[in-house]
Amino acid sequence: MSSIKWQTFQQLSYHCPKVGFGLDISDSGITSEQMSSHEELSKKALSEMADLESGAISNSDEGRMVGHYWLRNPKLAPQESLRGEIESTIENISHFASGVLNGKIRTATGSTFKNFLLIGIGGSALGPQLLANAFGSNEPGLCFFSLDNTDPAGIKRELDSIPDISETLFITISKSGGTKETRNAMLLTEEYCRERAVPFSAHAIAITGDGSALMKQAQEQEWMKTFPMWDWVGGRTSILSAVGLLPLALLGHSIHEFLDGAREMDALTRSPKWHENPALMLALAWYELGDGGKGKRDMVVLPYKDSLLYFSRYLQQLVMESLGKELDRDGNTVHQGIAVYGNKGSTDQHAYVQQLRDGIENFFVTFIEVLEDAPNGTPLASFEVEDGIIAGDYLAGFLHGTREALSQNGRKSLTITVARVDCFSLGMLIALFERAVGYYASFVNINAYHQPGVEAGKKAAASVLLLQRKIVDTLKEGGEPQSIEELEEKLQTSNLPMLFRILRRLKQNGVVATQGSTEDIFKETYRLV
Questions:
Q1: DSSP state, 412?
Q2: What does the alpha-carbon distance between residue 455 and residue 56 come to, in Å, rounded to a whole number?
């Protein structure tokens, strides 16, 4: 039995010692015969990926090229001008960050910068947050803070946590310049600075599209610097653009090692043979585990390293926004997708592993194993918590033990191994999942590079805000308190629950008040305060 398991492991695992990377799908229940049976799907995916990298219009719904692979290998760019833009952006980021860290670029009052505040949402925030959580600030790197929502309480709390707002860079990231959450957080930050006599514009940086509203604002207000966001890079694949590279450089880490790791994984994942191509191997496993590409199992991501806490959050957007589609590329209704959730090991030993082992079997686990406990010389890393046992031994024991416990109960898992958490290995991990997503999308014939559901949500939000304005205007014109039914008639809307929700929130925030008192909140009448 042990020899069979060893043989299966060898057949269904990939190892590249040169870069310290491995992938093991031997606990997935998938056979090598099943993997090999998808030769035609694999050929199609590889061909489409080659076309994408060469500059084909791969985002057909928006008529765009998809070029995030060029970011770490500008030689792939289909036009010399694009290659030049990528290379010059990398050089400009290095030069600017170096100037900030060595004190040549200073605040409006002449002091050195100590912090930077990143303002963005979605891929414009998740990527930098992943990097900051993974690596922290490396002397003389700046301290990282971020705003990724339009919650005024959260914005105030984060701004108040910055030690000295006058020694802070403000980086606003929005491709279009019209993302409301980002715009709102930026406006509140500007007001916060104004109240404290800090010149926001003199400390402000924009990462945005050419000609966007944000670019125009930056130019008109003479912000200190702008960096590009190209329309051929989606937010969820922008971490290797200025979106991720500038924060990484300001944290004091090597952007070139990060780019090198991604480029190395790209090279490994172009092989036409599934057992020599970890991204193809991963995508085929997703296809098999999801009942032939139907997404029947959720993906639980468990990195056994505190520094990779944000990786599952990062993958949620990359995988779910890319693969969660109602229509395929031929217009058929397919409702595709893979749900992703996770936290970190061994924290989840005490959270939801109980359900994973004994509950409903509707998932597969992706373990992420890091071989190095801590960099050499890290205090406490070699301290023995028991005779001959250090804390890292326990972490590894929990990973392997959990995987075995799940396997014994017929639960499926994959294991990705990296030698350590550094810029190079994180670049590899990101590139691995980016290409696996692309391959899987080809298998199930969907466009992985647009997000119509996200746009639908934005439009719905705009309609709610429009309704709120109409409610306030109607109450202002009417003078007398009005019931929900009266407002419904005047506004000619049939969505009474929405009217109720808007009014209750306006009441809580002191915009409207109810007339008299009643035990039946549905009978209350409303007036402006």
A1: E
A2: 24
The CATH number assigned to the domain with range 79-253 reads 3.40.50.10490
Domain ranges of the chain: 2-53+257-373+386-449, 79-253, 453-528
Using DSSP's 3-state secondary structure scheme, residue 172 falls into: strand
> What φ, ψ does residue 386 adopt, rounded to 5°?
-145, 170
Helices 242-250 and 123-135 sit at what angle, rounded to 10 degrees? 30
Write out the catalytic residue numbers: 321, 350, 458
**Is residue 42 reached through a cis peptide bond, with omega within 30 degrees of 0 on the bond before it?**
no
As a three-state string, the secondary structure of 114-129 is CEEEEECCCHHHHHHH
- For tokens 């290379």, the residue is 87
**What Cα–Cα distance (Å) separates residue 424 from each residue in 8, 136, 301, 383, 475?**
30, 15, 20, 28, 59
Distance CA 444, CA 446 (A): 6
Task: Tell me which amino acid residue 244 is.
Answer: G
Backbone angles phi, psi at 210, to 5 degrees: -65, 125
Distance of CA 189 to the CA centre of its chain: 23
* Residue-level pLDDT, tens digit, the chain, 529 residues: 578 889 999 999 999 999 999 999 999 999 999 999 999 999 999 999 999 999 999 999 999 999 999 999 999 999 999 999 999 999 999 999 999 999 999 999 999 999 999 999 999 999 999 999 999 999 999 999 999 999 999 999 999 999 999 999 999 999 988 899 999 999 999 999 999 999 999 999 999 999 999 999 999 999 999 999 999 999 999 999 999 999 999 999 999 999 999 999 999 999 999 999 999 999 999 999 999 999 999 999 999 999 999 999 999 999 999 999 999 999 999 999 999 999 899 988 788 889 999 999 999 999 999 999 998 778 889 999 999 999 999 999 999 999 999 999 999 999 999 999 999 999 999 999 999 999 999 999 999 999 888 778 888 888 999 999 999 999 988 778 999 999 998 998 888 999 999 999 999 999 999 987 667 888 889 999 9
Q: What is the CA radius of gyration of the chain?
A: 26
Give 230: exposed, middle or buried? Use CB within 10 Å, 0-12, 13-18, 19+. buried
> Which token pair is 454?
């996200």
Do 2-53+257-373+386-449 and 79-253 come out as alike in CATH topology?
yes
Q: What are phi and psi of 344, to 5 degrees?
A: -160, 155
Fold held by 2-53+257-373+386-449: Rossmann fold (3.40.50)
Strands 13-16 vs 21-24: parallel, antiparallel or unpaired:
antiparallel
> How many angstroms separate the CA atoms of 112 and 140, rounded?
11
Task: Check if the beta carbon of residue 341 is closer than 8 Å to that of residue 312.
Answer: yes
What is the Cα–Cα distance from 268 to 277, expressed in whole angstroms? 6
Integer Cα distance of 170 and 93 in angstroms: 15
Residue 405 one-letter amino acid: A
CATH architecture of 453-528: Orthogonal Bundle (1.10)
* DSSP, res 6: H
